[in-house]
Prior knowledge:
Layout: E1 2-5, E2 15-19, H1 32-43, E3 48-52, E4 57-62, H2 69-89, E5 94-99, H3 104-117, E6 137-141, H4 147-168, H5 176-190, E7 193-197, H6 199-204, H7 208-214, E8 222-228, E9 239-243, E10 245-249, H8 258-261, H9 269-283, E11 290-299, E12 311-313, E13 319-321, H10 329-340, E14 347-352, H11 356-362, E15 367-372, H12 377-388, E16 392-394, H13 399-402, E17 412-413, H14 421-430, E18 437-441, E19 447-448, E20 458-459, H15 464-476
Parallel strand pairs: 1-6, 2-4, 2-5, 5-6, 9-11, 9-14, 10-11, 13-17, 14-18, 15-16
Antiparallel strand pairs: 3-4, 7-8, 8-11, 12-13, 15-18, 19-20
The structure holds ligand BES and zinc ion (2 copies).
Amino acid sequence: MKVDKSTRKPSSANIIYLIKSNNDLIDLNFSREEVSYIKNMRKAKKDIVEVNRFNKRLYIAYYPGQVSVNQKSEAIRVLGNKALGFLNGSKITKVVVSSTSFSGNDIIAFVEGMVLGNYQFLKYKTGENKKVNSLEEISIFSKEVSLKDIDELMVISSAVYNSRDYVNEPDSFMTAEQLATEAKTLGDDSGAKVEIFTKKKIESLKMGGLLAVNRGSINPPTFTIFEWKPKNAVNDKPYVFVGKGVVYDTGGLSLKPSNFMETMKCDMAGAAAVIGGMYAISKLKLPVHVIGLIPATDNRPDGNAYTPGDVVTMFDGSTVEVLNTDAEGRMILADALSYAKKYDPELVIDIATLTGSASRAIGSQAMVGMKVNSGKEFVGLCKSADKVHERIVEFPMWDEYGDMLRSEIADRKNIGGAEAGAITAGKFLEHFTNYPYIHLDIAGPAFLAKSNAYRTVGGTGVGVRLFYEFIKSKVEG
Length: 477
Ligand code: BES
Ligand code: ZN
Ligand code: ZN
């Protein structure tokens, strides 16, 4: 998809007029009949009205009514996606988005809804099954939008597209090594440094959690470090993002029933969010030192797979009694969180499709967030989350929940009880941190069985826009 700025509206162009009220129709050169048609449609509560002029189509998109400021941006993104549906429905390839009454932010939100909604994953479709969306080009006709705004939107969108691609790729393609290669490709593009630890290096570091989960796999694990350290960084200590990169989660010997396994290629969505977020941050050269850590492997049963009852010595030297091999995310994240200590970080945020419990509790509308000593950072993150509509619901880090992880034979076990699974998972991870820390569980919003406005079916790329917005807020205060 191409988005540019246009200084004119050719008479043959398809145009979307963004307006606030029917008063704005006056300057738009519609005929009297057209105006009365549009007003009737508006009366019938339509927020997009299509006028067919045969050689071109004109659209009126009405500004959303009474909603709060953040909800308004979201309502406008959703409106943009709705307009996109009309355009693709009418097989339109190019459109001009024109507005004198929307602000620059609003117009960008509208176009963002269009661009994100136009994503498709067609790699494995062939012949007539490969139905490509028609829209290819959007020109923005407005003084309120700069080329810089458009560049930012396009980089963020391509980061989201990449992140969705990684999740939508089946694990036969997206192995741990492939995931690391994707990170390297994006790092090379943006000018960030990407280092990939191979199995040998991971063994020499004694990352016991990552190696235990990998024991059932015929593919080696990877541990990727994606670092953006600009000379003009505003921070002394880095922000660190850690993403769960389980490229496929069968559950291991604690095998998942197949209806729960079907979508488990999405179990590296946290890693995809970190790679996409790091790409946007570095490509747009935000002056902030940020590091992404991505432990990756698949989780499978096999002759050598780790077992329920096994005891694993982790990277930090502590021991874990594995009572369920399906609680594998926390095993690999724990090693990455311990590894993050060496950076003396300002804050570490992990992001993971960690528990069915999180998804059952709040569904796909939000992610679960938990915090430890994070001061104002959690409030700031929630603010960014509201802005980009990747919302966070806080769950408690109360110590009583941690008691559920006591083991008879090791330092702790890898599962709590039947209840509060999202919280005990967070408590498990907390043990491997000694810095300000936020844990995000995206098991609900990472992967959709059917599209939700501009969040297309399959991988959503959730987390990418959140991380970019959060790091940007460090620059702008
Ligand atoms: N990858 C799953 C969690 C998940 C479930 C992600 C649904 C996306 C959608 C995770 O590894 C897992 O299996 N968690 C178990 C933990 C349990 C064994 C303590 C769960 O949530 O059931
Ligand atoms: Zn699992
Ligand atoms: Zn998992």
